Amino acid sequence: MIIASGFVEANELSEVEKVISSLKTRGFKVEEVNEEKIVFLIERDSIANVKNEIDSLKGIEGVRNVYLTYYSMEGADEEITNA
Length: 83
Known about the structure:
Layout (H helix, E strand, L loop, with lengths): L1 E9 L5 H10 L3 E6 L2 E8 L2 H11 L5 E9 L12
Antiparallel strand pairs: 1-3, 1-4, 2-3
């Protein structure tokens, strides 16, 4: 499972609630809201799915910009062993 976090910037304060609603409808968890910035968390089964979901955020009416701040790597927590 891939976990990613970032934030979207709404065009203006009056559009924040509409953007939050769109995020939640798409399965994003809204972690924090600071003026026009909405911090999100998403969990999907592959990097490709995370990328597609985040790319789709740019099409939400009222979104100025989308920023990815963190993502996990599949298998990153597994030990590396040498044979």
